[in-house]
Design goal:
The chain is mostly helical and about 160 residues long. The protein has 5 helices and no strands. The protein starts with a helix and ends with a helix.
Length: about 160
């Protein structure tokens, strides 16, 4: 594992541990409120107990998506299909120049339109959306790439 990746994994691990601690504390407070027995306290206690459940679900969904995206990223890198943006002009912030990102997006979109059932095209389109600054569409598109890749893997596994 590369040093940068190791630092990222450790940071994520520490954040998840901190959240787990926080969720346990919230759960304890919720139980204490319910034990008080008053109508308002019980209502608040139930509300407080919902928060850790919701938090665990959010952490799980986020980590799961991250692992899925990393898996696709490794596959794309192995197939040498990652978008090459090294020579594209950048803003002082480090983000791609808007015109360059738009041109890249148009190129990738035409690849996608020629082969819309290929998860690789969806992955590249998601990356192009991200470079263009459209994070919402990037996430939606990456979800579709994950679904298509899983279907391809499961379809070939049964053959």
């Amino acid at each position: 594992m590369k040093e940068g990746a190791a630092k990222t994994v450790v940071t994520i691990g520490l954040l998840v541990a901190a959240l787990a601690f926080y969720f346990v504390l919230l759960g304890q407070r919720g139980i204490e409120l319910i034990r008080d027995g008053g109508g308002a306290a019980i209502g608040l206690g139930i509300g407080v107990l919902i928060l850790p459940v919701l938090g665990v679900w959010i952490v799980y969904a986020t980590l799961r998506a991250g692992f899925q995206h990393q898996y696709l990223s490794r596959r794309i890198a192995e197939e040498s299909l990652e978008l090459d943006v090294t020579d594209l002009p950048r803003r002082p912030s480090g983000r791609l120049d808007r015109a360059a990102a738009d041109a890249l997006f148009q190129q990738v979109k035409s690849e996608y339109e020629a082969d819309p059932d290929n998860w690789r095209r969806w992955y590249r389109l998601a990356r192009a959306y991200d470079y263009a600054g459209d994070r919402g569409r990037a996430r939606e598109t990456m979800r579709r790439a994950v679904e298509l890749e899983r279907a391809e893997r499961e379809g070939t596994a049964g053959s």
